[in-house]
Amino acid sequence: MMERGSCRRITHLKTGISTDGPPRNLGVQKINPKRLSPATSALTRPSRRACPSFTMAGPIYKRYVPPAKPKKRAPSPQLTTPAPESREPPQRKAKKSKSTPIDRSAVVPKPQGLTTTTELHLESSIIPKKSKKETKKRKRDVEIDEPLDDETSTPKKHRAVLSKFEKSSRITEVARDKAAKRVAADGDDGEEDEGELQDKPAEELHDLGPLPQPAPIPDAPFEPTYSTLPPWLAQPTTVDSTKTVPFSDLGVEPIFLKKLEKQGYKDALAVQSALLPMLHPGSDQHLGDICVSARTGSGKTLAYLLPIVEALRDSVVPSLSAIVVVPTRQLVDQALKVAEELCAGTKVKVGTAVGHVPFATEQKQLVKMRAQYDPVRAKELREKADQQLKSGFSQRGGIFSDLMAVPENHVPTYHSGVDILICTAGRLVEHIESTPGFLLRDVRWLVIDEADQLLDQNFQDWATVLMDALHGETPEEYMNAQELLRKRRKNTDWEMILPSRRRTTKVVLSATMTKDVTKLKTLRLRRPKLVVVEDETGQEQQEVNDDDTYELPATLEEFAVPVGDGSKKPLYVLQVLLRAAFADTSFTAPDPPKQESETSDDDSSSSSSEDESSVTSSSDSSSEEEEEVNIKKGGKSASTLSEHTSRVLIFAKSNESASRLSHLLSHLQPELGAVTKTLVKSATSKQSKKLLESFGQGKIKILIASDAASRGLDILDISHVINYDMPRSVTDYVHRVGRTARAGKKGSAWTLFDRKEAAWFLNAITKGGTVKRGGKKVKRVQFRDREVTWNRKRTYTAALLELKDAVEGSKD
Ligand SMILES: Nc1ncnc2c1ncn2[C@@H]1O[C@H](COP(=O)(O)OP(=O)(O)OP(=O)(O)O)[C@@H](O)[C@H]1O
């Protein structure tokens, strides 16, 4: 690279450092500049060009002066003497040295603010490469300027840079000298100064790597401020559940006001005050469908029946104008009762379709057939009937069968036997499919009560069948004159003139109204509106809530009773009955605790303090806040069971479970057994009706039922509901406990839960956000095990054995 022997000896003026031998390639990239003093670091940056051999007398930058081309220069005595090791001709060597690249880092002007060699070095590394043209030009310049070996001959453009560099080197050296002197004077080892230096903020070095970035801001938790529901479901019309309005202010006609007063209803309850104006013709009428979510016992039945009966009051000829669909037979009976009370004294006819009467009888009640003289149509129908017969697809029954029964030139015409039909969904489908002349063309109101249950159990695809019948065209053979004319004039100007079909208003109700759009879609709602009746306190939660939430009556008290492994559940039920439901009643059993302690085996250890008839109760959410609940043991009051006003509805999961509990109760407490009855699914409509009447009248005090009785059953005097078996869902719980605390009356609900059921019950029902109870909490009531089994162990075991024998006997 360098001409041999041309730089044999380089001696620094100030430092006195001399380097023997040819300068090695001390590229700035390979030297750690931190380790070098400014002067030394300057030494480490020689030009790669060959330089003439001379002793440097000036400042170090002189070494950067590019050497003169040998051919142009006068021969130097040193150069003329070839170096002993050199075997190449000088000209070739000069050529070689010419091609040696210039170390631009040594001559690049230093940007302002950079004072140290480190900075200089780093800056040089980021200088963009010069273009080929520039490099050539530069080389040319160098050639012209050469040879320059004294201060005045340094290229002007380098001089400014180098002088700055020299100045900064000098300043650094002076500072170092001063520091060294101070150290010597203080006798200090210089640690302080080093410390001072260390205290100085470290220079921040940046290479070409990415600059450090601030830590990424964590994503905010996802809190939707929107709803995935359609606007009508997401933004319901809310009505305060405490709001009552006099019926007279709602435009109810005097005849009905009297009826309502007679029943003891002065003011309309919240759901009624909201629904009546929406269904009455007038400025507040909603020209679309209505969904209603109102808690149990809030008076929904009257809310939809009153405007319907009022509107039909003047009907002369019955036409099927309203259909009310409910899930059970009991509910049909219940709604029928309310409707009949309202229709009394009017010509409005109410009918039912439930299935406990023969189908043919029901058909006759619902549809009346008459023969009408119409030879043209009679001919048409007969031709059609013949075609059917020939094709082999003729059906028994139907209009063609009826055609044979009417005189010649006559056609059968059908008329509804009722204005309002209250029915179960299954039976309605049967009539739509199989009753000739059962047509829905005049239906103005379709009410679906307990809609969530009905939509959940879409048996026989009832919703689709009903909607097709309601919205579809009447089969041609059943068309009346108007429909026939409309059909014939279809797609003509006449079609516009002919009156269109009357629209049906759908009213969909439940205490646990679903927001499931897919399910609601099957009802083909038109311009729907959701009305939610709830507590004012609940409105805070109204924000955006796509989930289903249910509200319990404000007058309801809830209790949760842990029952261990559940093996003694009947004994726990007995405790609830004796201590809560019939607390002030005298019973012959159990024996006084002292006598019991003599007779009982492992219970004998119980102390007399436990004879106190109190149980420990606590709010479920904070088990520490235990408080004594004033639940008294029976035997102190003179009240007898027959006089007692309490009505207890116990829910069991199945007929077997209900029967078992009934059997055990009658053994454990015979007086209670005498007033206990079981309402099982297999009971006939007559039986269950009778049973419910006796229960309502108070002849029966305890009714054990399955979930069939959980929906809609309206017996105002039910004071206690006991969930003997855990409900299967939150909605089941809401409907079960909703059999008490109805229409503003007080009531309490007791739920027994074993260890396996605890997690679900406590999370989904007592704590879960699904059930709203107006800030109230479920109270936990802990019965002491000894009290539960007190003197009843033997009886209980004996009753179980008897039950076992009875079951095995029945199997045989
Ligand atoms: N305006 C009123 N004033 C007082 N009581 C009323 C009024 N309207 C209805 N009730 C009574 O409220 C009780 C509950 O009514 P209803 O059975 O219609 O409730 P519901 O909302 O349908 O309950 P569920 O959802 O459990 O079926 C009935 O016993 C009824 O007599």
Automatic annotation (TrEMBL):
<feature type="domain" description="Helicase C-terminal">
    <location>
        <begin position="623"/>
        <end position="789"/>
    </location>
</feature>
<feature type="domain" description="Helicase ATP-binding">
    <location>
        <begin position="281"/>
        <end position="531"/>
    </location>
</feature>
<dbReference type="GO" id="GO:0003723">
    <property type="term" value="F:RNA binding"/>
</dbReference>
<keyword id="KW-0378">Hydrolase</keyword>
<feature type="compositionally biased region" description="Acidic residues">
    <location>
        <begin position="598"/>
        <end position="613"/>
    </location>
</feature>
<feature type="region of interest" description="Disordered">
    <location>
        <begin position="586"/>
        <end position="638"/>
    </location>
</feature>
<dbReference type="GO" id="GO:0005524">
    <property type="term" value="F:ATP binding"/>
</dbReference>
<feature type="region of interest" description="Disordered">
    <location>
        <begin position="1"/>
        <end position="229"/>
    </location>
</feature>
<comment type="similarity">
    <text>Belongs to the DEAD box helicase family.</text>
</comment>
<comment type="function">
    <text>RNA helicase.</text>
</comment>
<feature type="compositionally biased region" description="Basic residues">
    <location>
        <begin position="129"/>
        <end position="139"/>
    </location>
</feature>
<dbReference type="GO" id="GO:0003724">
    <property type="term" value="F:RNA helicase activity"/>
</dbReference>
<dbReference type="Pfam" id="PF00270">
    <property type="entry name" value="DEAD"/>
</dbReference>
<feature type="compositionally biased region" description="Pro residues">
    <location>
        <begin position="211"/>
        <end position="221"/>
    </location>
</feature>
<feature type="compositionally biased region" description="Basic and acidic residues">
    <location>
        <begin position="164"/>
        <end position="185"/>
    </location>
</feature>
<keyword id="KW-0347">Helicase</keyword>
<feature type="compositionally biased region" description="Acidic residues">
    <location>
        <begin position="186"/>
        <end position="196"/>
    </location>
</feature>
<keyword id="KW-0067">ATP-binding</keyword>
<keyword id="KW-0694">RNA-binding</keyword>
<dbReference type="InterPro" id="IPR001650">
    <property type="entry name" value="Helicase_C-like"/>
</dbReference>
<dbReference type="GO" id="GO:0016787">
    <property type="term" value="F:hydrolase activity"/>
</dbReference>
<dbReference type="Pfam" id="PF00271">
    <property type="entry name" value="Helicase_C"/>
</dbReference>
<feature type="compositionally biased region" description="Acidic residues">
    <location>
        <begin position="143"/>
        <end position="152"/>
    </location>
</feature>
<dbReference type="InterPro" id="IPR027417">
    <property type="entry name" value="P-loop_NTPase"/>
</dbReference>
<dbReference type="InterPro" id="IPR011545">
    <property type="entry name" value="DEAD/DEAH_box_helicase_dom"/>
</dbReference>
<feature type="compositionally biased region" description="Basic and acidic residues">
    <location>
        <begin position="197"/>
        <end position="207"/>
    </location>
</feature>
<keyword id="KW-0547">Nucleotide-binding</keyword>
<protein>
    <recommendedName>
        <fullName>ATP-dependent RNA helicase</fullName>
        <ecNumber>3.6.4.13</ecNumber>
    </recommendedName>
</protein>
<dbReference type="InterPro" id="IPR014001">
    <property type="entry name" value="Helicase_ATP-bd"/>
</dbReference>
